[in-house]
Amino acid sequence: MLGRPVAQRLLANGWQVRCLVRDTKRAAALLGPGFELVSGDVTEPATLDAAFADCTHLHLNLRGTNTVASYQSNEVDGAKFCLAAARRHGFKLVSYLSGAGRRDAALDRHFVVRVKKAVEEALHASGLPWIAWRATHFMESLPQFVRDGRATILGRQPEPMHYVAAADYARMVATAFDEPRAWSRPLYVFGPQAMTMREALGLYVAARHPGMVVGTLPLPIARVLGRLTGNADLSFAAELFAAFRDIGEDGDPVEANRLLGRPATMLRDWLRGEVAA
Q1: How far apart are CA 59 and CA 119, in angstroms?
Q2: CA dihedral in degrees (100, 123, 10, 99; nearest 10)?
Q3: Could you state, in chain order, the average pLDDT of each consecutive group of 10 residues for the chain (277 residues)?
Q4: Is the whole-model pTM more than 0.90?
Q5: Cα(first)–Cα(last) distance of the chain, in Å?
Q6: Which residues, listed in sequence order, are joined to residue 187 by a DSSP beta bridge?
Q7: DSSP the chain
Q8: What was the pLDDT predicted at 273?
Q9: Best label site of 31, 109, 201, 217, fewest CB within 10 Å?
């Protein structure tokens, strides 16, 4: 959802792009032509040196599955293994998709906050030039709210957020690769318009699923249902949405916009493209 547009934008900007993937055949179908695909896994350090040879810049787009342990393994440990390999090969820049939520110590109870903090600390400690992309919520996440013919938000999500299009984010990442003034700092990526999760999902549903109603499932009920039914996805989603509710959106995108150009895609414009697709 978010790695592909970055890879494609880098290729369009004239970079030679090598992608570390677990399944080269599937990746070729998703990415299209022009990429060098290398089989490997960020959780297996022995696979990294061959993939990193002769490269100069690294972009990390990492996440777990539906357990906290998978985020620790894939994102935190995986990032540390990649940073070690990048140091061995003398990389010029490491770029990492982080998040724009609040980071107060009291919020460390949420795994999302712990994970992003841990990777950013590893970036600082690496000794390499780095960028932590503190991006807000992406428009491309909205289709994931629709399951089994229903559009559902877990819990109250009252805080407005500046939804950003992945294409705008990808342009900023690719521009930053050639802009050393953007390096060794966190950069906040916000879209041009603030709206609540319900407002954004309502616009998506109206455009893509006319007549569908956006519902809310309280977080305590989601937790109980997940536990009683053994639905690991629902249990994990409840914890994820609790984090969304508490950490919200934080930071200032002015510096990123000044250096790299501000995101311009409005949600309604993105929806026109989504519906056409």
Answers
A1: 13
A2: -10
A3: 96 97 94 96 95 97 92 97 97 97 94 96 98 98 94 96 98 98 98 97 96 95 95 94 96 98 97 70
A4: yes
A5: 15
A6: 133
A7: --HHHHHHHHHHTT---EEEES-HHHHHHHH-TT-EEEE--TT-GGGHHHHHTT--EEEE-----SSHHHHIIIIIIHHHHHHHHHHHTT-SEEEEE---S---GGGGGSHHHHHHHHHHHHHHHH-S-EEEEEE--BGGGGGGGEETTEEEEES---S-B--B-HHHHHHHHHHHTT-GGG-SEEEEE--S--B-HHHHHHHHHHHHSTTPPEEEE-HHHHHHHHHHHT-HHHHHHHHHHHHHHHH---S--HHHHHHH------HHHHHHHHHH-
A8: 84
A9: 109
| Residue in the structure block whose two tokens are 């999302």 | 112
